[in-house]
Design brief:
Distance between the termini: 47 Å
Low-confidence stretches: 243-285
Number of domains: 2
Radius of gyration: 20 Å
Mean pLDDT: 88
Largest sheet: 10 strands, mixed
Helix content: 10-25%
Structural class: alpha+beta
CATH architecture of the largest domain: 3-Layer(aba) Sandwich
Strand content: 25-35%
Number of strands: 19
Order of helices and strands: EEEHEHHEEEHEHEHHHEEEEEEEEEE
Length: about 375
């Protein structure tokens, strides 16, 4: 069995709960982070899954918690390591996007720095204590507290073996869109989790579902089901009959008493948008059924739109909408009701996420549009 030193000895055929203190001077006073290890009875790969890089992405966090309860170690091959929340300070304080300790977005400073700020030390510890010991890595996300999105997966583009394996995992996850990109979407000191992991030689993806600061049952089930699909792809579990629990069983098994589904109807993917985006330049392998049978479109560009002005944001689109180059997709106005700026789509594509709160700052992020090679 492959060792993960920070967890100590893992016994085949058992599930263990751990409280882990990550190394780093800036992290010394942190509360321990919960981690679950599920060591299969049979040998196989190590899959590391975390959520909570952004503390307000609750469906992703719940998906890791719920998934941990579905696994029967006697029926799996290999080892699954689960961390529900990496960015505990943001989770505890309901802080979107950044870690409140240093006001840094952790997903812009991977692979981190052992001598850097709090977020840099935290991401460095995650990479070196967990990711490098895995054979595959899944980072679960969603729209943050003020964001809605349509489910999608991101992986690193490329022709090398790690990129190819990452894309295969992304396709196996089973979401409507796979975004394979080769460069960061924002200038930053570091990179995102999936890119840093790939640079370390670990096939990796970042999967997104849910958002708007709510516990959306549909999004939780989508992410749990995606991880199950990846386990099948990695041959850690067999067919559906051998799976420890179906997605529906996972939802029922950890259903919070009295809770109701809060699935965001705006995040449902439109078939018309999917089929239209599929007309961009892709190969037959890039557009069509994934391993799960879900129609998946591969996108190769991620255009983020910002406002030049602070004010009120009036969107004309929702997550999942198809947009055309030159189309007005929103406007920003002042508090007198004057239009300061019309927001025009620079590309043909699909709205993968957007800011839903009306209040925006100067240079504030409005939305992200996924598109193919031809804009």
């Amino acid at each position: 069995m492959k060792k993960i030193p920070i967890l100590g000895k893992l016994k085949a055929g058992t599930t263990q709960r751990h409280l882990i203190k990550l190394p780093g001077a800036a992290l010394a006073k942190d509360e321990p982070r919960p981690v679950i290890s599920v060591a299969g009875a049979k040998p196989g790969p190590v899959l590391f899954v975390n959520a909570g890089v952004h503390g307000g992405e609750y469906p992703a966090i719940e998906a890791v918690i719920r998934f941990s309860k579905t696994l029967d170690p006697k029926k799996i091959s290999g080892t699954v390591i689960l961390m529900p929340v990496m960015n505990l300070p943001a989770f505890r304080t309901r802080t979107p996007f950044v870690c409140p300790v240093d006001n840094v977005n952790p997903n812009r400073v991977f692979p981190g720095d052992p001598s850097g700020s709090y977020s840099e030390q935290m991401t460095h510890a995650l990479i070196h204590e967990f990711v490098v010991h895995a054979d595959a890595y899944i980072d679960l996300h969603g729209g943050d507290i003020p964001e809605a999105l349509v489910p999608f997966v991101i992986c690193r583009a490329g022709s090398d073996e790690i990129a190819k394996k990452s894309k295969a995992i992304a396709m196996a996850f089973g979401l409507p869109y796979v975004l394979a990109i080769s460069k960061p979407v924002q200038p930053a000191k570091g990179s995102s989790s999936y890119a840093a992991a790939a640079e370390k030689g670990v096939p990796s993806i970042l999967a997104e579902a849910g958002g708007v600061g709510q516990m959306q049952e549909e999004a939780v089930a989508t992410l749990v089901g995606g991880v199950v699909n990846v386990m099948r792809h990695l041959e850690m579990i067999g067919n559906a009959g051998d799976t420890p629990a179906t997605t529906e069983e996972a939802t029922a098994k950890s259903q919070i008493p009295g809770s109701k589904s809060q699935a965001n109807s705006k995040s449902k993917t439109k078939k018309t948008a999917r089929s239209a985006v599929a007309t961009t330049k892709t190969t037959a392998a890039d557009t069509g059924p994934s391993r799960t049978g879900i129609a998946t479109t591969v996108l190769t560009k991620f255009e983020w739109l910002y406002t030049k002005n602070a004010g009120m944001w009036y969107s004309k689109v929702v997550a999942g909408d198809l947009v055309k180059k030159g189309q007005q997709i929103g406007a920003v106005g002042n508090l007198f009701g004057d239009v300061l700026e019309k927001i025009i789509s620079p590309v043909n594509g699909v709205v993968l996420f957007l800011t839903i709160n009306p209040s925006v700052l100067e240079n504030g992020l409005l939305m992200g549009i996924g598109c193919g090679s031809d804009k």
